[in-house]
Amino acid sequence: MRSRLSQYVGFAPAAVLFGVFFLAPLALIVAYSFWEVINYNVVHHWTLDNYRYFFSTPTYVTTLWDTIWVAAVATFLTLLAAFPLAYWLARYVRPSVRRLLLLLIILPFWTSYLLRVTSWTTILGEKGVLNRFLEAIGVIHQPLSFLLYNRPAVILVLVYLYFPFAALTLYATLERFDWMQLRAAMDLGAPPRTAMTRVLLPQIRPGITTAVIFVFIPVLGEYLTPQLVGGTRGVMIGNLIVNFFQGAEYTRGAAVSLLIAALIVIMLILFRKQLDVAEAYGR
Amino acid sequence: MKASLTRREAVRAGALGVAGLYVAGCGSSSSSSSATSSSSSQGASTSPVTLNWETWNDHYLPAQLAAVQKQTGIEARPSLESDDSDGYLKVKQTGGQYDIVSTDALWAPKYFHDGLTEAFDMSSIPVSSQLYSVAKQVPFWTVSGGYLVYPNGWSSVNIYYNPKFVNPAPTSWEVLTEPKYAGKVVAENQPTDLMAMAGLATGAKQPYQMSTSEISRAQQFLKSAKPAFLKLVSQNSDSVRALADGSAWMALENLGTDYRVKAAGGPVVKIAVPKEGVVGWIDGEQLVKASSHKNRFDQFVNAMEQAPWVAQNFIANGRPLFNEKAYKILVNQGQQERADLLYYNQPEKALEMTLKGPSGNVQAYIDAFNQVFGA
């Protein structure tokens, strides 16, 4: 018994941190979501009004669906861009060059998130780099105003921000794949595409699922990127939650935040079935 | 010497390290609090003390704080509030952690009635003689026990427009509903104030205390104006940048934005005052009731609000202030044209605006705003 307990001593600090800085605030948010605010005071009157209000107001439901759609599209495009790079890195690049390329992938993390998002306004803006270049080569005579402050701009920047997460996750999975299996499949008559879909993809499915989780879930809660590059046409649910908290509407904000969290939990449960942990760790 | 630690030794070392950090932290905070408590008990006018000041960054200059500390022993520690409700909630939730809090107009009575601030005797602050008299007679800042706010400055939120693209000059908030300006307007993301502006546009009697039907009309106006908005920004510098780079042709901003656009290398922009009226603010400093250093408030304000500093503040931040003597300094420095263009010498205009204050039903305002600007 004593030796069994002593195994968990090392976990104690993490458990305390987790409990104090995650579980306790989460419990508070849950409680807040069932209370109400009257004249800037949180009143401990249990009610479902915050949730009723959310589902009865079309704007919020629409914004939530649009947020899920943006997250799905951004995730798809991120994986579409990351997979070829990870494949090429894992299969064809020499180890010495590979290390340098991996470093370049994570290099953006050495700058702040805010700076990385703001930099896109200098690229896509009417007086930005892209417009100036297109004007200089004569493709356009007036700057293009549709490049920024809309939903496509939000998706583009999200793909840029989360590309390293997807690329590294896919690379880690592809690196452990036995490429001889692909050759064997083609030797047995499978065309390259069939070898990819019947041999490669099923085995790297946990990695793909992990990459989806690493991209989709944080994108769902994004608010700074739509705030900076989305304008009034790229609003996501996070922006509406921020407005609640700015106006001291803590209980409404807590309810909507909890709905997002619940959505994430449901998705994790669904994804969990797709994610074989043993395979992911190569056991 | 051992080459490696056992797990028990590592955990013990970690625990000792954490305990040591905690004791060090407690030691430094207790030594600073004992210094402040001893100085306040002495009541000496230059004894060192720290005042925590919830404010905005245009209420002070770094050099000013250093000079005031040297002169009075008071170290002001500014903590920035994003807006009035942010400042209000911080003081409400933290009690005596703040000593002074800046606020706008009609928020001051709310602070006072909720027991968060105290009135003070304006005549006990000698520098108040430099103020315009109208600033010392604001009716909703006057209570039986004294005055609620030491006045700082004011501004209206107007339409700044680029005359190259906006023709004719706007005369009404209805300009925001014109299709030709779609995607060419920026404003600060302040839901309550934008709703109040929409209330002005739709004839609400008290834009910050609108009835349900008035909120509904204001919401409809904002909905029809939504296509005009390129983006809702978090601060004035973003609006300035949008006007300067031409991505926006109009901005709903504070006085002085035209100068800031010019300083940013942008085009000439002009000010338009809609016929329905404008929302604006007058702000100043309040004494927090739970402060442990209330006896130093007068001294601090007296040192901070001297005319030369206020004049420098105007040059740095470019909006009108309530210090009349500072205006005369600006005139002597050749800044009269700029000061007059910003209505510095017309402080009575400040009370003609629809002044910022807490909304009567903030939930309804936020809900209406979100329903307009949601997807």
What does this structure look like?
The complex is a heterodimer of chains A (283) and B (375). Chain A is built from 15 helices and two strands. Chain A has a single domain, classed as Orthogonal Bundle (MetI-like fold), CATH 1.10.3720. In chain A, strand 1 and strand 2 form a beta hairpin. Chain A has helices at 2-6, 12-33, 49-56, 58-91, 95-106, 113-124, 129-136, 151-175, 180-187, 192-203, 205-220, 224-229, 237-246, 250-274, 277-280, and strands at residues 36-38, 41-43. Chain B folds into two domains: 46-148 and 281-352, D-Maltodextrin-Binding Protein, domain 2; 155-278 and 358-373, Periplasmic binding protein-like II (D-Maltodextrin-Binding Protein, domain 2), CATH 3.40.190.10. Chain B contains 13 helices and 13 strands. In chain B, strands 1, 2, 3, 4, 7, 8, 9, 10, 11, 12 and 13 form an eleven-stranded mixed sheet that branches. A two-stranded antiparallel sheet of chain B has the order 5-6. The model of chain B is unreliable at 22-44 (pLDDT under 50). Chain A binds chain B through residues 9-10, 13, 37, 40, 53, 57, 59-60, 62-63, 66-67, 125-127, 145, 148-149, 227, 230-232, 235-236, 239-240, 243-244, 246-249, 252, and chain B through 7, 11, 14, 82-83, 85-86, 88-89, 92, 183, 189, 191-192, 226, 229-232, 234, 245-247, 358, 362-363, 365-367, 369-371, 373-375.
What's a quick, concise take on this entry?
Chain A is mainly alpha-helical.
What descriptors fit this protein?
heterodimer, A: 283 residues, mainly alpha, MetI-like fold, two-stranded antiparallel ribbon, 15 helices, B: 375 residues, alpha/beta, D-Maltodextrin-Binding Protein, domain 2, 2 domains, two-stranded antiparallel sheet, 13 helices, 18% strand
Specify which chain pair forms the largest interface: A-B, 34 and 35 residues
From the coordinates shown, what is the CATH architecture of the largest domain in chain B?
A: 3-Layer(aba) Sandwich
- Give the assembly state of these chains: heterodimer
- Domain tally of chain B: 2
CATH H-level superfamily title of the largest domain in chain B = Periplasmic binding protein-like II
| Global shape of chain B | globular
What is the helix content of chain B? 40-55%
Tell me the distance between the termini of chain A: 29 Å
The main pleated sheet of chain B reads as: 11 strands, mixed
How far apart, in Å, are the first and last alpha carbons of chain B?
66 Å
Mean pLDDT of chain A: 90
Order of helices and strands of chain B: HEHEHEHEEEEEHHEHEHEEHHHHEH
- The SS-based structural class of chain B is alpha/beta
The dominant shape of chain A is globular
H and E order of chain A: HHEEHHHHHHHHHHHHH
What is the class of chain A in the CATH system?
Answer: Mainly Alpha
Number of strands of chain B: 13
CATH homologous superfamily identity of chain A? MetI-like
CATH architecture heading of chain A: Orthogonal Bundle
Number of strands of chain A: 2
Query: What fraction of residues of chain B sit in β-strands?
Result: 15-25%
